[in-house]
Specification:
The chain has one domain (35-195): tt1808, chain A. Helix content is 23%, strand content 28%. The chain has 6 helices and 15 strands. This is Putative restriction endonuclease domain-containing protein. It holds the Pfam family Uma2. Residues 11-183 form the Putative restriction endonuclease domain.
Length: 196
């Protein structure tokens, strides 16, 4: 993951080549190459499939990367927005935040799947970003460790200590009350590789 030192805005972001994936966090540009691993893709696909099925009877919509989430600051014009990210999965329950460019404002839930190139940013910059913009639930998924950390905003608007789930657990999904994700299916690719 490459980083640019020059401060950028959404108007710059829109001029970059379509074949490249970039994110902006407070004006700092991050190149999201290289492409995700097959394990990352499997975990992403299984999480998306289960969440998409759960969303069928709700007002929430589930979006898969690449999907731009813009986080404007107070009175910031569209072209001057300095934070645009592409979470692996975004769940948005307020349809007014969705436009043809993606989501403007905080999703209700975000999932980031760790890779060696992005782990530090997902745990630091994105953690602070999602907390500051009041993303209600933030999941950090570690495919290699077969762990999901679930951070939930508390009454003070801060993320509390993470709830930790492992491969044999079912994870409750706060935006879909009573619903759960089956982690055995999410991490099944690891078990398939062990059997070979």
């Amino acid at each position: 993951m490459k980083q640019s030192a020059e401060k950028m805005t959404y108007s710059d972001y829109l001029t970059w080549p379509e074949g490249e994936r970039w994110e902006l966090i407070s004006g700092v540009a991050y190149n999201m190459s290289p492409a995700p691993s097959p394990m990352h893709q499997h975990v992403l696909g299984e999480l998306f499939a289960q969440l998409h099925a759960l969303s069928a009877n709700s007002r929430c919509s589930v979006y898969l990367v690449p999907f731009d989430v813009r986080f404007p600051e107070k009175n910031e014009k569209e072209t001057d927005i300095s934070t645009v990210v592409q979470p692996d999965i975004s769940i948005v329950c307020d349809a007014s935040k969705i436009d043809r460019k993606g989501c403007k404002g905080a999703p209700d839930m975000v999932i980031e799947i760790l890779s060696p190139a992005t782990a530090k940013k997902d745990r630091r910059e994105k953690f602070r970003l999602y907390q500051r913009h009041q993303v209600k639930s933030y999941w950090i998924v570690s495919p290699l460790d077969e762990i999901i950390e679930v951070f939930t905003l508390n009454q003070d608007g801060k993320y509390g200590e993470a709830d930790i789930y492992t491969a044999d657990d079912r994870v409750p999904v706060s935006v879909f009350p009573g619903a759960e994700i089956d982690l055995a299916k999410v991490f099944s690719v690891n078990r398939e590789e062990e059997e070979e």
